[in-house]
Amino acid sequence: MKFGIVVFPGSNCDVDCYHAAKEVLGQPTEYVWHQEQDLSRFDCLVIPGGFSYGDYLRCGAIARFSPAMEAIARESERGKLVLGICNGFQILLESGLLPGAMLRNNHLQFRCEERHLRLENNRTPFTNLGEVGQVLRIPIAHAEGNYFIDENGLAELKRHNQIAFRYCDEQGRITPESNPNGSIENIAGITNRRGNILGMMPHPERAAEAILGCTDGKLVWVSILKWWGDIHA
Amino acid sequence: MHKLHLELQSLDSATAMGLKPQEYEKVIEIMGRVPNLVELGMFAVMWSEHCSYKHSRRALRQFPTTGARVLQGPGENAGVVDIGDDLALVFKIESHNHPSAIEPYQGAATGVGGIVRDVFAMGARPVALLNSLRFGELDSAHQRWLFSGVVAGIAGYGNCLGIPTVGGEVYFNQSYTGNCLVNAMCVGLIDHASLAKGKAAGVGNRVILIGASTGRDGIHGATFASEELSEQSAKKRPSVQVGDPFMEKLLLEACLELIKDKVIIGMQDLGAAGLTSSSSEMAARAGTGLELDVARVPRRESNMNPYEIMLSESQERMLLVVEPEKVSIVAERCAKWGLTATDVGQVTDDGLLRILDDGEVAAELSAAALASEGPVYSPVGAVPAWQESVRCLDYSTIKEPQDLSEVLVALLSTPNIASKEWVYRQYDHMVRGDTVILPGSDAAMLRIKGTQKGIAMSVDCNSRYVYLDPYTGGAIAVAEAARNVACSGAEPLAVTNCLNFGNPEKPEVFYQLNSAIQGMAAACNALNTPVTGGNVSLYNETKGQAIYPTPTVGMVGLIEDIEKRVTQGFKNEGDTVYLLGTTHDELGGSEYLKLRHGLEQGMPPQLNLQLEVHLQKLLVSAAKQGLLRSAHDCAEGGLAVTLSESAISGSKGVVIELINQGALRLDSLLFGESQSRVIVSVAPQDNAQFELLCGGHNVPCQTVGKVQGRSVVVRVDGQEVIAKTLGEIQKAWREAIPCLMSQ
Amino acid sequence: MWRAKIFVTLREGVLDPQGQAVRSGLMSQGFKAVSDVRIGKYMEVTVEATSIDEVSAMVRAMCERLLANPVMEDYHFILEEVQ
Amino acid sequence: MWRAKIFVTLREGVLDPQGQAVRSGLMSQGFKAVSDVRIGKYMEVTVEATSIDEVSAMVRAMCERLLANPVMEDYHFILEEVQ
Ligand SMILES: Nc1ncnc2c1ncn2[C@@H]1O[C@H](COP(=O)(O)OP(=O)(O)O)[C@@H](O)[C@H]1O
Ligand SMILES: [Mg+2]
């Protein structure tokens, strides 16, 4: 399975995602410069975290116009997988590939810490090895992860089972205290309707090796590989 | 461009720029004529304390600067030490105190930007940031504004760059009320082959300026940083700069690509004194001259004259020297990253820095004179009149507290000891995916992908000790930084330091500076950790009142097998807890004395360097043999606080039985800050081997208890003196700073 | 030459944590008369154009495409002719 | 009741990285007529007061103490009486 890690000026979790795909999963992986127009050679495109274009206007607002994002929209229509992490999630929202928008964290500070997530939907290419209700420990690191969507949009998300992860406490309870940023209904990650695009604020690449203190994030990476293996079996 | 009258300048304008009369005379002597405005301005910034170290240079020579691992000592943009496998660490610490006092967010942010440029100017990939911060007490709204602004600024810049901020320290003390300290340290990783130098070598080579355009910001920033903060400084306010971390990220990536492609002959960042210092230093190092045409420098503001362009301290700029045929490669690379690269001049053979303004000579002066022939003074030192009296401490007047549990809780919630999570959770400390010991242990550690190795880092200084006794305090700063690194299982390798002091022209301040350097040097020699660089920040005074002398020490270390790393938290129920080292009746300078008795007095704890060396060797070798489950150095708050911190970090209780029999006061025993002590925990099956090892290293080692239960319990001679649940101590420790900050 | 003064504000119903923080900051500084604070962005864009209609269309397009995110923000602007 | 519309902008000569990024974003979107972009903050503060002089003094004090840092920012404001 071939992974492409998209690099914008200002991306900075590109190295981490490359390492996860290449070394942890052991799959062929390439960096993709944001000006590339043809991404058809990849099976999964990862939009990593960071501060594309400095995040100066709104996070992801400028990156979405890049040729690579146009190519990603095309590839996703063809059923390829797209994983947007942190800034990658923000870019997916700005580009309209996922619904909603991202506001400043309600406490206004950047937060980097481990968080608990409840897996809400295991019928996606990114979560198929998990159980619904399973609690994962995965770090967050962002100042703008306060997910916002209007009421109708939220109802749509739920109707189509698009909520992938919610912030929760150690026991899996969705509580206000376990919400690190004010995100609506503790949403931490969503998919598109088709399920082949996932955007999430927590960083699964930072929790994919024992030496980093936690391997819960590996579930996302290994699920991707399993899904691909199943359809190519 | 607005033309400048190149009239010759009198003594009056020299004084206005901060030069002393004899320095003005010296300029005339060097030039053989009277300087014009541009020339005089260039001398004034380069001969400021900040750039020329004129009051500190002689004293700095007392540091040991060589060693088997030192690839680059002081004199370049950053120090370099070998870590084997053809790899090296590049690291340095720098202050941004004055800018942060005026605009905390931008001051701290641009401080991070500056130190990061110093590291990648050497060709290294910056992999970690640390910082050392000092403010007044948090009961003032202004101090809270400074503290939160500085932390947000460091976060804003470092997070955007994608360099993890993995460690640091924060202290609050009245002496910093008018003068906060913000020191930032950066550590980079490099292959030996990629090491770049800040040299303008090769006559005929081109000089390329890349990155941000030049504005009027920070003109005379270097001289500003060398003056006391006063009402006057308020008027200099526009010299505050706004950082552009995105630009820096582009610059960083472009420069590293150019280094990788071997396109660069020499490279240097533009920091204090801007183009003036970078061009003169690069030429001086290579023994060449440079010719620059300021009319070609891309500007952000209109009508800038040569004086302003040469002195501007606009951030996020680098100066490169490349062969003429490689100029186009530089341009291409820069274009890829959206950066402007401008050919601004060339390397010459006459040793002169010739500044042209659209072809016309605007200044012509010796590069070496600017960069290295500045005045050097030998200030006189004198022990301050108050020194003896603050060292006196009459123990008989200090009442021993009744409720020691309550003292422990109070200590855990003083901001100097309380959890700094409020700070480091604002820093992305995990980006790049190599941080294997996160903030919250004695030292931070990163893995080096592709090897079994790890690097450990720490910054330390207890300035109250330095205030009470500069020599001992200086030595302790080095010893503690090294001890923190050793506690992680890594071997301490080398030191960078930032000397934050008051006005060195005052004999009592110079005494502090000089004695602290002597103490630091002694510790560096004993521990075999040479000094590879650093920075001096003097004139940290407001209204004539100097800060506590604060020589911040940044230490780097190496662990050969990262799987052998050690953290501070207790691990397993039933592990044996040992106290290494010896406790004396030493309450002087302790946090306890300040908190309970309102005293910042006494002799600081004494440091036995011999014991310190043995202790650190023991820690490294015990870690290597896999004998340590945890190790945590006894620092502020003493034994009781150290035990509590290990308990909190590991979420495990501890039961301690101490034998005292009247030997020490109970408050000394529990809260005194005797040096060279470490609390370790060891699995029961390894006890015998560990004790043997301690004996072999001549390190006093006492079994003091067991990891057990959900409380911290301390008994002395069978009598319970402390008993608190993990929940209680954790709450006190964790909530103190957030609580203060939410008022 | 024209200067567009553009205001981008959070849509009604979207929580404004920055505004709330500033409000409580003001309160704690003794400005008790403050009842509400909303924070937005203010941008000044200088453009070359021949007519006000042209500028107006251009600025509207900029806002729609880049300067505001319609999911959470509203915008309005004022145009001034400058030298 | 009064509404103060407050504009906080970077002082002349102070670098505006946001403005630069937006400018180049607009350029690459084909808005070539844009020559300059400066970004600042826009705040709406609602205050209770009896006279315009009182509001004006109060808002000025807020700006000086909290809303702007005079080291690098300028501010101005407009007052409106509201229901
Ligand atoms: N406290 C110190 N100890 C050792 N070396 C120092 C110290 N302060 C400054 N230096 C060295 O002096 C040189 C000049 O420092 P500095 O002017 O801060 O560098 P830069 O030009 O990068 O700002 C550097 O090599 C630095 O490492
Ligand atoms: Mg430098």
- Sheet bearing the most strands of chain C, described? 3 strands, antiparallel
Rounded average pLDDT of chain B: 94
Question: Which distinct ligands sit in these coordinates?
Answer: adenosine-5'-diphosphate, magnesium ion
Structural domain tally of chain C? 1
The CATH topology of chain C comes to: Mth169, Chain: A
End-to-end C-alpha gap of chain B: 52 Å
Give me the side-by-side strand order of the main sheet of chain C: 2-1-3
- Poorly predicted regions of chain B are 229-237
User: Average pLDDT value of chain C?
Assistant: 94
User: What helical percentage do the residues of chain B reach?
Assistant: 25-40%
**CATH superfamily name of chain C?**
Phosphoribosylformylglycinamidine synthase subunit PurS
Indicate the structural class of chain C. alpha+beta
Shape of chain B: globular
CATH class of chain C: Alpha Beta
Shape of chain C: elongated
In the predicted model, the low-confidence regions of chain C spanning at least 5 consecutive residues are none
State the helix count of chain C: 2
Q: Tell me the fraction of residues in β-strands of chain C, as a range.
A: 35-45%
N-to-C CA distance of chain C: 6 Å
